[in-house]
From TrEMBL:
GO terms for molecular function: ATP binding; protein serine/threonine kinase activity. Signal peptide: none annotated. It comes from Sphaeroforma arctica JP610. SUPFAM superfamilies: Protein kinase-like (PK-like) (SSF56112). The keyword Transferase applies. InterPro entries: Kinase-like_dom_sf, Prot_kinase_dom. GO terms for cellular component: nucleus. Residues 85-351 form the Protein kinase domain. This is Serine/threonine protein kinase. The keyword Transferase applies. It comes from the Eukaryota. Keywords: Kinase, Serine/threonine-protein kinase, Transferase.
Length: 364
């Protein structure tokens, strides 16, 4: 979490000073303001741990002492946001955030800037950065380089690793009949590996879909957009129905009574990891066939009813084009019963060994 403390405000245009302090003795990530010399500047502190009470009560003097004691003079970036990240070009414009490509002035590396309104998008952006920095580095999970505030434009920005070849949506559009198995398998393995690792650390994504899978220069894939992600080990409240409806598991759709209600994560009646498995299964289907299997995983959708009763997922003509191994994969990832649905570890095992994950238990 990031809090902005207003200490001094000038009528003149504010300038930004970015400072990276990796290890202060506090509890949540926050942004602070301090007065420097005779002008007000915004200081973005990459703070590891900061308790909200101490953050609000911190004095100008103690804040100055903290910064001075950590000797941040060697980590000061150019003072304006546009100088920090040059050549900004918009890539995509989502419902809440806009993605830009830019070059980081101090390193020369190409980055993606995920920008949102500092007042309306603050929670999601903070959550995404916090989740990504908590996870260990994984070759198929996007890396977050920083979280900064552009005070001049009232924007909050997550600085991310750049995926130069767009997303899986671009690949699906370029292959309207679906990709070949030789193309599908490495992608599926990459994503199952990323999700398996994520779940092992108690993180659920809650918005897996082709739009949120980036493609790198060497055609590798990376899981993106952790704004809706939840840490199952934290004492947080969560709204069950997150993500896009076409990728929601049937148990999520059925939980309509909790649609607009935030509940404690420890009281959550659903296995949210299995909801991720369903969403990844729908993503795999889209990649293999170039189409959606159904509109909604609900009895209101005849296609879902057909799947639940006959085991033919989506139109029969599409289903018949799949190999037997692809069908086994989808049948188990898209099982209407979350209890019988594969875990992400079982999904990864099957993709890796082409054997039913039941063998995992026999070999123990």
């Amino acid at each position: 979490m990031i809090t902005t403390l207003k200490m001094e405000k000038r009528k003149a245009q504010q300038r930004m000073l970015l400072v990276r302090l990796p290890s202060l003795p506090f509890n949540v990530k926050r942004l602070l303001k301090r007065k420097r010399s005779s002008q007000t500047q915004t200081v973005a502190l990459a703070v590891e741990e900061l308790d909200i009470t101490s953050c609000l009560n911190i004095s100008r003097t103690s804040l100055h002492d903290i910064i001075k004691s950590h000797d941040c003079t060697d980590t000061v970036l150019p003072r304006s946001f546009s100088q920090c990240f040059v050549g900004q070009v918009p890539l995509t414009d989502g419902s809440t955030c806009t993605i830009y490509t830019a070059t980081e002035a101090t390193t020369g590396r190409q980055v993606a800037l995920k920008k949102g309104d500092v007042f309306f998008d603050k929670f999601q952006m903070e959550n995404e950065y916090q989740i990504l920095t908590r996870l260990p580095k994984h070759s198929n999970i996007i890396e977050a380089y920083g979280l900064v505030v552009d005070a001049e434009h009232n924007e909050i920005c997550v600085v991310l690793e750049m995926c130069t070849r767009g997303s899986l949506i671009d690949m699906i559009l370029a292959n309207p009949s679906g990709v070949e198995n030789a193309t599908f398998l490495p992608i599926a393995l990459d994503l199952a590996s990323a999700c398996k690792e994520m779940h092992a650390y108690g993180i659920v994504h809650r918005d897996i879909k082709p739009d949120n899978v980036g493609v790198t220069e060497n055609n590798g894939t990376k899981l993106l957009d952790f704004g809706e992600a939840v840490d199952l080990y934290n004492d947080v409240h969560v709204r069950l129905q997150a993500g896009s409806s076409r990728y929601m598991a049937p148990e999520l759709i059925a939980a309509s009574s909790h649609r607009n209600e935030d509940i404690p994560i420890h009281d959550c009646p659903l296995d949210l990891t299995k909801c991720d498995v369903w969403a990844l299964g729908v993503t795999f289907y889209c990649l293999l066939t170039g189409s959606f299997p159904l509109h909604l995983a609900s009895s209101r959708d005849p296609k879902y009813e057909e799947w639940a009763s006959t085991g033919s997922f989506g139109p029969q003509s599409k289903w018949n084009t799949l190999t037997e191994s692809e069908k086994i994969l989808l049948i188990n990832m898209l099982n209407p019963s979350p209890f019988n649905r594969w875990t992400m570890a079982e999904t990864h095992y099957y993709l890796l060994h082409k054997r039913q994950p039941m063998l995992i238990y026999l070999l123990k």
